[in-house]
Amino acid sequence: MPLDTQIEGLLFYKATPLKIVALAKLFAVTEDDIKASALSLQTRLQAGATRLLITDSELELVTAPELDQLIESIRRDEMKRDIGKAGAETLAIVLYKGPVSRAEIDRIRGVNSAFILRNLLVRGLVAREQVGKGNVFTVTPALLAHLGVTTKAELPEYAKVLDTLEAFEVQLAKESE
Predict the structure, then answer these.
(1) Helix, strand counts (H, E) of the chain
(2) How far apart are CA 16 and CA 93, in angstroms?
(3) 3-state SS assignment for residue 7
């Protein structure tokens, strides 16, 4: 499979900007190979709904500017709806366990949480922070204020929920051995 297609797939899966240096290491090619493939991918995507954003150090898939009005109207519509069971579950994990990576959230929930996390990010309920080579999700001050607490430790049964989560993770680890 061509390198540009592999890069596209990885960017789609990760749904976050990726460093050119990290991509070069991952694919065991030079940074120039990544940049050349990125330009090829950018050209290929030019007529579609997604575009490749290229900075000096990162690559990211984004929606085409022509879709801004559509995306904004959908975003406004999404903001009016309930976050649902999956959103509440994911939000609880971030609230009680955060800062937490998407991989940890996916492992706890047993499903891909990318869409749910995006929804929570758009609503301003969680924030994504760069830590080392990866990202973690944390709660926002606005969410804490909405819940009527100033720290996570003030959340209902905080210590008990943390203990339950820890026991659940230990059980997951035993099952995966």
Answers:
(1) 9, 5
(2) 20
(3) helix
Using CB atoms within 10 A of its CB, is residue 176 exposed (0-12), middle (13-18) or buried (19+)?
exposed
Cα–Cα distance, 33 to 176 (Å, whole number): 37
The encoded tokens of residue 153 equal: 């430790």
The one-character DSSP state at 123 is T
Residues 98, 139: contact at Cβ < 8 Å?
A: yes
Q: Is residue 23 very low, low, confident or very high in pLDDT (cuts 50, 70, 90)?
A: very high
User: By percentage, how much of the chain surpasses pLDDT 70?
Assistant: 98
Q: For residue 139, give the H/E element and its range.
A: strand 134-139
List of residues 6+ apart from 75 with CB closer than 8 A: 122
| Residue 78: closest CA among 39, 30, 115 | 115
On whether the CB atoms of residues 172 and 105 are closer than 8 A, the answer is no
Residue 69 contacts residue 54 (beta carbons within 8 Å): no
Tokens 């003030």, located at residue: 154
Specify the amino acid at residue 33. D
